[in-house]
Amino acid sequence: MPTKIEKDSVTGTHTTGHEWDGIKELDTPLPRWWVYVFYACILWAVGYWVLYPSWPYGRDYLRGALGWSMRAEITEDMAAARAAQAGIRGRIEAASLERIVADPDLLTFAIVGGAAAFADNCAPCHGSGGAGAKGYPNLADDDWLWGGSLDAIETTIRYGIRSSHEETRISDMPRFGADELLEPDEIDAVAEYVLSFTGRATDAAAAKRGADIFAENCAACHGDKGEGTQELGAPRLNDAIWLYGGDKATIVETVTNARRGVMPTWVGRLDEATIKMLTVYEHSLGGGT
Amino acid sequence: METNTIMNSVSETVPVEDAVSTKAGGKQPLYAPRIPVYPKRVSGTFRRIKWIALTVLLGIYYLLPWLRWDRGPGAPDQAVLIDMPNRRAYFFFIEIWPQEVYYLVGILILAALGLFFATSLAGRVWCGYACPQTVWTDLFMWVERRVEGDRNARMRLDRKPFGLAKAARKLAKHAIWLVIAFLTGGAWIMYFADAPTVLREIFTLQASETIYFFTGFFTVTTYIMAGWAREQVCTYMCPYARFQGAMLDEDSLVVTYQRWRGEPRGKHKKGTSWEGRGHCVDCNQCVAVCPTGIDIRDGQQLECIGCGLCIDACNGVMDKVGLPRGLITFDTAANQQARAAGKPTRYRLARPRTIIYALLMIIIAGTMLWGLTFRTTLEVSVLRDRSPLFVTLSDGDIRNGYTFKVLNMTREARVYTVALSGLDGATLTIIGATPRDDTSAEVTVKPDSVGTYRLYVRLPRDRVTASSLPLSFVVTDQSTGTTALHQTVFRGP
Question: CB distance B394–A129 less than 8 Å?
């Protein structure tokens, strides 16, 4: 609390009356220009209220005489960015996928633009780098369910898999166990046989039994040696990549209930240039194979 | 005081003249009015140095942007240019990319150390001679003196009631100030865009809003700072005045009134003896010429900008009364004590403080020079994919993905060989590159740009002996043979 206001003999200025251990605080007046700047700031603030969005009232707020809004500004920025990209996006839309990949400018733009579109639309299932997850294919490896060529990838993105589009890619693996097409011990034998493709079978006798069952029930789609058929979307069974898991229990489960993952159709939801950029980006993720 | 609109209401209760003084029991006003400073014209050594510094510095400032420097086609031909939209800075033969901001940091560190060094040697010489605030204030004061006359004439003019003659002079002064301010603001813009183009655009009203805004902004700030604010910038706004005390010591040369010689001061009649009195004739010339309006005889104070004009003024007076010059002089506090006691004086320019500052400056300058000399026009950056860390391929091989960037800082397209080394059995693929063999490929990067590529390294499963294996990429510029090495790792399960 202020105690005693006195006049300082050296400066001729009053003290504030505050004192700490004998140290007194001078009440030095501010320079005049400083006070002017302070008043100017107050006027500036009032001007700001009038010109820019400021006070809230009820469900609305004072919108400001300039009609400025952050949302309008970002819309303008986005429009400007789109206009700036229009040229190269137009070239991408017009070019074939092969042309895009062969042209360094288009390729660079498509990969960067594709990566952005991928993060927005695909990453929730396929992972930020396309690494996938159980049931969601890894797009960064060299094993493609429906083909890894530019055209195959574009078709998949465009129409999806088991999607609502009439041109969707469809493959229906029978539910061998659930629909009682195979007995549990037969399924077990088939699983052993499938493991033998990658040299992992532990029960040679069961695998041998499974070979016949496989030839009758599975080979039509998955191939005699489990090499898969991309036209039918039948996965390879003789490699190191498993969409749902390659251990015996998981294989038994897959054969019993089948798997029917769904990918949505993107045609109509993404524009043509974006679909092409996504295709090129995903193609580059898999190392172009 | 000409403009006092807001304060007039206050000054009804507290007269302006009385604002700082205290009346018994009365409340103090909110503000202290500026005490106007009317620096008198002076001539002498330090004034001459100031004119030379002013001419050289303003010359550099106004003319530098007009200097041309041929960099070949496609590049700006302005010697000093900061090209914001294209993220490049040009300084004669040096071309800086944004990631080389450490050169700017180096310059800032050098500037700070240089300031400390100069201050510990000779006080606030920066403030007195080279600071833009001082240089432009000096120029504005020169204009003021040409238009309104010297100190006494200006004081008389300000006391006069407002009339046509006074208005004409004031108007002329402010008009010239504004022209100089506009030229200053305009010249600033020239450092950020092609000078001849900007000049043409400004006067044909075709320049961008940004250019008009900044020209206007710096016009206004120059006019206010050099015309109106002047010494208040140094006293109230500049932090340097406040911490200069930490840089000065008893061996620093500062503008000093030699109290032992000058006191007791007093008026002196020609022909009378100097016995029993000091050499200061109390003519107040040192106060009259001071651009910050202080009395140097009160000793070292924060308002003093160390310009030495009081030395020139005092020397002139000493010549007239027939006494040796240097009653006010650049001297050290230690020497002043020695002189007062009649002991020998000595100057210690080399002392730990100055030696450390000098050494640091040499180290920083040396490092920058080294960096510039061995600066390569090729830079490589490799970012290993984090998601996924690695990919298992169908045959069990492991593949890592990298984002690979080559910065071609030259003015022509370059072909680079990218080779993989340090990882036996690994193969390299780059999207968009021409393959050479299993471990190398060629990429072509456009002039003055960054080439970005997806790069894959594949390693047979049985070679993946650890979860992290070192490997490196060697990038060779085919036309010069310059190589850049980038070390990274290969991750596996």
Answer: no
